[in-house]
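Researcher: Structure for this, please.
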Amino acid sequence: MFYDPSAEKETHSRNLPHWQQVQRLYFVTFRLADSIPQERLEQIKAQRKEWNCRNSQPYSESQLVEYYMLFSKRVEDWLDDHYGKCVLGLPECRSIVADAMEYFNGKRYELDHWVIMPNHVHVLVMPLAEHVLSDICHNWKSYTAHQINKCLGNVGQLWQHESFDHIVRSEMQLEKFREYIGANASKCPQRSLLSQARIK
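Model: Predicted structure, token format:
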């Protein structure tokens, strides 16, 4: 279930580095396209480009930790400012996302804790058998974008294209992610939806 440094892993990147191993538990964050101001995105894009020039792949664990602290954690902090239209704060939109995530739970993947916030989602998920994380996230976002846009009478991009994912390293780290997800929900309990299921 947890990351195995001695096992084979697949590494790829778009803007963010991604490590994948078979049947591992991931902490995933995906966010609405308008959830961060454009000027902040341009700032972090320039800083990320500079960092990538100084750090070559494959990334070591220490490089990934540095990357997370410099970029991913900062983005998570910005998300908590609840910038943008925050359509996931609407009960009907939250339900669409929750139903989509639960639909193949136990078949294509197993869900642990998850929370739907007004402009982003955090989820602990473990793909099963031949299913891969990128396909799972793509299916969630594609289906929910169509349904939410239909519900609201909107068109166009709903989700930011790329998600953040991190292979959970240990039981201790898993508990920290669970606590983080619960703490996120407590920041705006009236506009979020929390599940505290546990993978056995």
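Researcher: Any notable elements?
Model: The chain has a mean pLDDT of 85. Residues 53 and 111 are 36 Å apart (CA to CA).
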